[in-house]
Amino acid sequence: MNDRKKAVLLAAVLLVIAILCGIRIYAVSHSSTGNGQALYADIYQSGELLETIRLDTVTDEYTFEVPGANGASNTVCVRPGNIAIISANCPDQICVHQGFISTSLLPITCLPNRLVIRVREEAACLDDTTLVPDGVTY
Q1: Total-model pTM
Q2: Which of 69, 73, 67, 99 is nearest to 88 (CA)?
Q3: Rounded to 5 degrees, what are φ and ψ at 22?
């Protein structure tokens, strides 16, 4: 096989892998509330849990402020199924530019204000009153 055919074959294999990865990411990001999973957002500041919000039960959009040290603050917006920091007084604004999240793939982090928002899923029982673990770790 000559070098040109090898390069075309390698490019085709890489393209297929990229497509499969994209499908997997899409499936994970859109499978949280329709498969019996309870969707939560945990809000931490300086490593301390401030609040837990059950995102799959939110019906109306709302915002609230999270104050920090030295006059720092973040405005958090909660929508049905997702959450975001919509304004912050930190200099880089990376937390704001991240936008809304609805999966545990990447948390929202505001390092200057020491704020972290993590989304997590838990399997819910059929009666939806008690949560059961979705995995076992040894």
Answers
A1: 0.65
A2: 73
A3: -65, -40
